């Protein structure tokens, strides 16, 4: 029986790094953000439907995330129209990953997993976390990120303490070595390779 592990965590908590560590251990990882990028890219499945519903969002045959952000800020109705198009396509992308991936463990990297209450189909949920000062330092070191943007993003995300309370597994991502070691331990536990 394959264990389906949801991987989530707030911005700057080390989710992408942790997902990469699962991949490095040979575990298949489905990445929700990467799926959306693929759907928005030239020739992607979302380009046609978004172009029909929100024509101004298409630039050079691809969906422009910057223009979409601006349009959503000006008219919240755009978000609803976008979600109606994108959510089924993302679900289809995830279903194809499930059909084509094999192994005792599959990881699903989904940023707003708990915020959207979309975890029911998973075997368990892993939340990655870090102290708030570490989180802030990581996020503010990103190019173009401001404190105001960081605060806006945090306001849309479930508080870290609440995520941890709802998690089946928690990995603290203070150092790369500790994180890698925790990932290896969790893989062993979830695939039955750990000592009983």
Structure write-up:
This protein is an alpha/beta fold and 196 residues long. The chain has two domains: 1-28 and 104-196, 3-Layer(aba) Sandwich (Rossmann fold); 33-100, no CATH class. It contains nine helices and seven strands. Strands 2-5-1-6-7 form a five-stranded parallel sheet, with helices on both faces. The protein has a two-stranded antiparallel sheet with strand order 3-4. α1 (15-24) packs across α9 and α2 (32-40) crosses α5 (77-100).
Secondary-structure element series? EHEHHEEHHEEHHHEH
CATH topology of the largest domain: Rossmann fold
Question: Regions with pLDDT < 50 over 5+ consecutive residues?
Answer: none
Number of folding domains? 2
Average pLDDT level? 92
Question: Main sheet, how many strands, which sense, barrel?
Answer: 5 strands, parallel
Q: Tell me the strand order in the biggest sheet.
A: 2-5-1-6-7
* Helix count from the secondary structure assignment: 9
Within CATH, the superfamily of the largest domain carries the name P-loop containing nucleotide triphosphate hydrolases
Our Rg estimate from Cα atoms comes to: 18 Å
Specify the helix fraction band: 40-55%
Q: How widely separated are the two ends?
A: 18 Å
Overall strand count: 7
List keywords for this structure.
9 helices; Rossmann fold; 196 residues; 7 strands; five-stranded parallel β-sheet; two-stranded antiparallel ribbon; single chain; globular; alpha/beta
Note the topology.
Layout: E1 3-8, H1 15-24, E2 29-31, H2 32-40, H3 47-53, E3 58-59, E4 62-63, H4 65-74, H5 77-100, E5 105-109, E6 124-129, H6 132-140, H7 147-156, H8 160-166, E7 169-172, H9 176-190
Parallel strand pairs: 1-5, 1-6, 2-5, 6-7
Antiparallel strand pairs: 3-4
Helix pairs in contact: 1-9, 2-5
